Structures are given as structure tokens and as C-alpha cells.
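How a chain folds remains the central question behind the approach discussed here. The record that follows shows the chain in one-letter code together with its fold in C-alpha cell form:
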Amino acid sequence: MSVSVRIPTILRTYTGGESEVKAEGASLRAVVADLEASYAGISARILDDAGKIRRFVNVYVGDEDVRFADGLDTATPDGAQISIIPAVAGG
């Protein structure tokens, strides 16, 4: 399954400045592993030490927030758009 992944500005240092990259995987977990294989170090910015999506990182497959789906086991259909969005806080 080939998917497109939107990369937030803060992670573009890992992708050579690319704002969108292609990745492979039938689940979000596989896509993150494929991203790590192509862009070493990027998964540590998405996942915590326990291998879960970091608290302040939101990931969408299409329009669906994976926290309300199957998390890292969320299916990533061929052609899906995945968005990685760091949470923003402020007052």
C-alpha cells in the first residue's frame, strides 16, 4: 500500500525539506516503520519510548484521527493521505 504523508515543518529536517513524502504499509505502524527506514530518526519524533503515538502529536489517516480509530493499527488504504500534526498550545 502506497500512501502520501504530510510532514509538518518541524520534522522536515528529516525529509530533506520535503513537505510530503511517499511511504509503504498496510497499517499506520508499518508506514511509520517505512518512514524510519527512509528518514532515520523521524519515528522517535512521532512515537514515544513505549512505541505509542506521542501525546502532543496528532496523526490522521484521511480525515480520521487515529486516536479514535485503531491507533497505530489503523489501516492505511492504498493512496491514503496521512497527516502528522504537532499539537499547538498557547494562551
Summary: The first strand starts at residue 2 and ends at 6. Residues 28-38 form the longest helix (11 residues).
